[in-house]
Amino acid sequence: MLPGFETVTEINDEMNHSTLLVEQRDSGLLIVTLNRPDEGNAVNTQMGIELLDFWTGLVRDRDGSTTRSVVLTGAGEAAFCAGGDMKERDGMSAEVWRHQHEIFEQALWMMMECPVPVIAAVNGKAFGATEALEWGIFSRVCSTADLMPVVIATAESIVGNAPLAVRQAKKAIHQGLQMDVRSALRFEVEAYNRLTDTEDRREGVTAWNEGRKPRFKGR
Description:
The chain is of the alpha/beta class and 219 residues long. It folds into 2 domains: 20-159, Alpha-Beta Complex (2-enoyl-CoA Hydratase, Chain A, domain 1), CATH 3.90.226; 163-210, Orthogonal Bundle (Lyase 2-enoyl-coa Hydratase, Chain  A, domain 2), CATH 1.10.12. Helix content is 46%, strand content 10%. Strands 1-2-3-4 form a 4-stranded mixed β-sheet, sandwiched between helices. Strand 2, helix 1 (45-60) and strand 3 (69-74) form a beta-alpha-beta unit. It is globular, with a radius of gyration of 19 Å.
């Protein structure tokens, strides 16, 4: 049995990570760095466990007041993530391999369920970046020097919006893409309706009428 798999704990600012760097900014932006640069940031079992814990913690954070956007990147200049750690898998039994992959799969699903926008800043070698942009896999291709400033600026622009509305918009987009148009529009309306009796909606209306920048609190 792989150690630590049975216990998924909520991530907080005090938790120590051996494979991740987590920077919490006052604005509500989280910058998460895969931190195994000597291994091309390849995902080993420990990183899988820490990612699972991290994304689970964000899914549990439902009030929207702490984290408003996440940037995911890799340490070093060589690679964003080289995939699974083949050195660790060398000689691994089939049972342990399957168990490890279950951790990776759960971490992926929890990331996809994350209620706040997640932006991948894919650094390092990026072969076929032009084709990926044309196919819609990436939103933008940047130089090495421009990557993090551009991504952080995009994330900060998201952070400046009403966090509950951003979460509902992401939910409507994520779920709506899997529905027919009529069902998706109904889902969008229901997502909107859940915001009508919030402090942020009233603050948005008041700020607009007073000609000032709204002060959203995620309530």
